[in-house]
Write a structure and sequence with these properties.
Layout: H1 10-13, E1 17-22, H2 26-37, E2 43-46, H3 55-58, H4 90-103, E3 110-111, E4 116-122, E5 127-132, E6 137-145, E7 167-170, E8 184-188, H5 192-204, E9 207-211, E10 218-219, H6 228-236, H7 238-259, H8 264-280, H9 284-289, E11 302-303, H10 307-311, E12 316-319, E13 323-326, E14 330-333, E15 338-340, E16 343-346, E17 361-362, H11 369-372, E18 391-393, H12 406-426, E19 429-434, H13 436-450, H14 478-484, E20 493-497
Parallel strand pairs: 1-2, 1-6, 2-3, 4-17, 6-18, 7-16, 8-9, 8-16, 9-12, 10-11
Antiparallel strand pairs: 4-5, 5-6, 13-14, 14-15, 19-20
The structure holds 3-acetylpyridine adenine dinucleotide (N01).
The site of 3-acetylpyridine adenine dinucleotide (N01) has 22 residues, from helix 5.
Length: 498
């Protein structure tokens, strides 16, 4: 049917959906699968890009891969027996995401190029209204925010940034048309993205200078090709893959003891990392420059077996002088030397909003979520916020993992959201709103536990707000997190019938 120019916008007459999901990355698609499996199919997914995949669609830099083993970095309800490596590359992870879309027939739910610009709760109707930047309005009984915590690439606020006349590339928005062959390249940053990019860049570029502000802890990455017999075993006996997944889960859980809290295992992990450095870097001066000055776990632990060797290639140099300014020709460090480049790669991370929301969210009585979160985001069990009924967050405040697969945490959140949404629909509720006191006491307990973690041991990281509050990470084992998400305690919620 063709729409006449004077017909009202479709949205104005569209029937509200049961559930609106914002984002078609891992979380949004997983949410749709779990809802579908619970018999809820009246779903709309709004995706701002023109393709699914979220972070794995965007992060296509050379060497992009996951630093959690693939058997754990996938959904337990959709295991992939065919992973080609122990740690898969971004291309294969994206293929897995495409597989989820086709296998679970998710395409019909997704509306691409729909950038949500605001969410508003209509108290009288018990509906959320989402507006998009092309002027559409989509309404739903419940909303799941799955726009991703690391989806906005950030260029640091450096003097002279705009004056640089060469090429600028951000790790999360790679320019595949740029030919690095023979080029003079700078890499700013030495975090998880940089340690994957640098070994690939040195293979192609003329030379690479790496600007390090803080040396990170690096552990070896046991990456290998999966033998064919292993894949056929997993295909024939899915139980064998389940068993491996459980073993990987337990191993990662034990890492919590090393990286979350300061324990004897913390020192063991540091010793292993120092040994890795000593084995791979013979030059004492370089080793000193690469030795971290904070406790392991305070920042994200890096996994790489080829980062240190890459730094020692003839065409690579580590620069530890702080950057003073960018100039038209390159980068000037504080001791006054100008390094000239054709291209600067910014592996400088993401704009992780810890005090705001990606778009205005208006709840009961016109309250605004970013005003409430101005001094640090908080939620009940990381998923619900008092005053914003029927709204579920994925990777909300204090749900980040430092030691285990993000997807393990994600599954707990998705299943919790299904429980809440089922309650809203089955009991025909206008509003299911977490009580403010339940949220407050949950957060008092979380902050008390956070104070004792390595994240608060003095380093600066994207986990913390400017004033040192950790509103990002969950201070415990993934198992603890999963347990708390197993039950939706009705007494913690205010339920308003329609
Ligand atoms: O970003 P980062 P990332 N001047 O913020 C430096 C996930 N991830 O993209 O440490 C100079 O960690 C900054 O220096 P410093 C993972 O959760 C996962 O690498 O702040 N330097 C740092 O070295 C990870 O935690 C995978 O002193 C500046 C770097 O830039 C998250 O993404 C792979 C600077 C930024 O490191 C982010 O990782 C990749 C400045 N002004 C990423 N500003 C997996 O394998 C910043 N830096 C799953």
């Amino acid at each position: 049917k063709t729409r006449r120019a004077d017909t009202p916008a479709i949205s104005a007459v569209q029937k509200p959906a049961s559930v609106l999901i914002i984002g078609a990355g891992f979380a949004g698609l997983g949410m749709a699968i779990r809802l579908q499996q619970a018999g809820i199919r009246d779903i709309v997914i709004l995706e701002r890009a023109d393709a699914v995949g979220g972070t794995w669609r965007d992060n296509t830099y050379p060497g992009a891969a996951c630093d959690i083993p693939s058997n754990l970095y996938s959904y337990s309800f959709a295991q992939n027996p065919d992973w080609s490596r122990s740690f898969s590359g971004s291309g294969e992870i994206l293929e897995y995401i495409h597989y989820l879309v086709s296998h679970f027939n998710l395409k019909p739910y997704i509306r691409f190029n729909k950038n949500v610009t605001g969410l508003q709760f209509d108290e009288a109707a018990g509906l959320w209204h989402a507006s998009t930047d092309d002027g559409e309005r989509v309404s739903a009984r419940a909303v799941v925010m799955a726009q991703g915590p690391l989806s906005n690439a950030s260029f640091p606020d450096m003097p002279g940034l705009e004056t640089f006349e060469g090429h600028r590339i951000h790790s999360a928005r790679w320019d595949h048309d740029y030919d690095f062959t023979g080029k003079r390249v700078a890499v700013i940053g030495t975090g998880a993205s940089a340690v994957q990019i640098i070994p690939e860049l040195v293979k192609q570029a003329g030379f690479v200078k790496v600007f390090q502000r803080t040396a990170g802890w690096v552990l070896p990455r046991p990456d290998f090709e999966t033998p064919a017999w292993n894949r056929s075993l997993f295909r024939k006996f899915p139980g064998a893959q389940d068993a491996l997944r459980k073993a990987l889960y337990v191993t990662h859980e034990s890492m919590a003891l090393a990286v979350i809290w300061n324990s004897p295992l913390t020192s063991v992990a540091e010793r292993i990392s120092r040994l890795h450095l000593r084995r791979q870097v013979k030059d004492r001066w370089l080793r000193r420059q690469l030795t971290p000055n904070f406790r392991i776990g305070c920042k994200r632990v890096l996994l790489s077996s080829d980062y240190y060797p890459a730094l020692q290639k003839d065409n690579c140099k580590l620069i530890t002088w702080p950057i003073a300014t960018l100039s038209p020709k390159g980068i000037r460090t504080v001791e006054g030397i100008e390094h000239q480049f054709d291209c600067i790669v910014f592996a400088t991370g993401f704009d992780v909003s810890k005090t705001g929301t990606p778009f205005p969210v208006t709840g009961l009585g016109g309250r605004k979520l970013d005003e409430e979160w101005a001094r640090g985001a908080q939620a009940y069990k990381s998923i619900n916020v008092a005053g914003y009924p029927n709204l579920f967050l994925t990777f909300g405040p204090n749900s980040g993992p430092g030691h285990n697969s993000a997807l393990v945490y994600m599954e707990s959140q998705l299943d919790y959201a299904v429980r809440g949404i089922q309650k809203i629909l089955d009991e025909n509720l206008k509003a299911l709103d977490v009580k403010a006191d339940a949220q407050a006491s949950y957060n008092v307990a979380i902050q008390k536990r956070l104070a004792k973690t390595n994240w608060n041991s003095g380093c600066k990281s994207w986990y913390l707000t400017e004033d040192g509050h950790n509103v990002t990470m969950y201070p415990g084992f993934a198992t603890q997190y999963a347990l708390q998400m197993k039950t939706l305690e009705p007494s913690d919620y205010e339920a308003t019938p329609a």
